[in-house]
Amino acid sequence: AQTVTQSQPEMSVQEAETVTLSCTYDTSESDYYLFWYKQPPSRQMILVIRQEAYKQQNATENRFSVNFQKAAKSFSLKISDSQLGDAAMYFCAYNFGNEKLTFGTGTRLTIIP
Amino acid sequence: EAQVTQNPRYLITVTGKKLTVTCSQNMNHEYMSWYRQDPGLGLRQIYYSMNVEVTDKGDVPEGYKVSRKEKRNFPLILESPSPNQTSLYFCASSSGQGPFYGYTFGSGTRLTVV
Q1: CB contacts < 8 Å between A and B, how many?
Q2: Which residue in A43, A44, A98 is closest to B50 by CB distance?
Q3: Taking an 8 Å Cβ-Cβ cutoff, which residues of chain A contact chain B?
Q4: CB B106 within 8 A of CB B94
Q5: pLDDT of residue B2
Q6: What is the CA radius of gyration of chain A?
Q7: pLDDT-derived band of residue A96, with 50, 70 and 90 as boundaries?
Q8: According to the model, what pLDDT value does residue A57 have?
Q9: Which residue in the set A50, A100, A106 is minimally distant from B33, CB to CB?
Q10: Which of A15, A58, B59, B87 fits B36 for a cystine, CB–CB 3.0-4.6 Å?
Q11: What is the mean pLDDT of chain B?
C-alpha cells in the first residue's frame, strides 16, 4: 500500500523568510500525482500545488514551489516570503489510479511576526 | 460558484441515534468521496463513488453507509454512531474518473458523539 510520510509535525518561520516542508512517499508506480493542501484555521482544504510524476519540471504557484525528487521519493514544499496568512496545517498527498488521494499526517506551520 | 456543500457544519449527537451528513456538488463531477480527519492520523478515506449507483469502501468504512442515487449528492449515513466516530468529516469531489486533478472539498462537518 502506498504511504505518505510527513516527519515534521510542527514548523515555524519568521515572516518574510523561506520555509521548506518535507514529504516522502512509498510507491512502486512510475506515473502518479502528488499534491500539497493547505488547511487554515477555517478548516477549509485548499489545493496549493499539484505535480505530475512524469514531468521533470518542478511545479510552482507564485510563492509556493516544490522540490520533486522522484528517485528519492521526496516531494518538499517551499514557501518563499512567508506571510501571516500562510499559517495553517499543510498536508502532502499522493494519487495513483482512480480510488483516492492518500494523505500524510500533516505539518502545522506557524508564522512568527 | 463551483462548490461542494456539506451540512451541517457542526453536529453533536448521542450514541446510537442515526444521523445523515449531506453532501452536494454543482460541478457535474462523477467522482465523490468521504474522508475523516483525526489528529495525528491525517485524512483517511471512508467511502468513494465513481458514478451514480457505484460506491466502494475506502480505508475506514466500518460504521458508515453511503448512497449515490443522483450525480450531485453523496450523503454519509451513521446508522448507530459511537464515540469513536467523533471526528471532522470532509466530502470531496473530482472531475474525471478519479482524483488525478485533486479534490474540491466541502467545508467539513465537526461531529461529536457523546
Answers
A1: 61
A2: A98
A3: 4, 9, 33, 35, 37, 42-45, 47, 50, 91, 93, 95, 97-101, 103-106
A4: no
A5: 84
A6: 14
A7: confident
A8: 87
A9: A100
A10: B87
A11: 95
The per-residue pLDDT for A55 is 87
- In three-state secondary structure terms, A21 is strand
- Taking residue A13's Cβ as centre, other Cβ atoms within 10 Å add up to 18
Across residues A53-69, what is the average pLDDT? 92
Minimal CA separation from A73 to chain B, in Å: 18
Low pLDDT (below 50) residues in chain B: none
SS3 label, residue A84: helix
List chain B residues with CB under 8 Å of A35.
102
What are the residues whose beta carbons fall under 8 Å from the beta carbon of A39, sequence distance 6 or more?
A45, A46, A88, A89, A90, A91, A106
Mutation to test the A interface, candidates B100, B110, B111, most A Cβ within 10 Å: B100
Cα–Cα distance, A4 to A35 (Å, whole number) = 11
Mean pLDDT of A78-100: 93
What does the pLDDT look like over A82-91, one tens digit per residue? 999 999 999 9
Grid cell, residue B112, equals 461529536
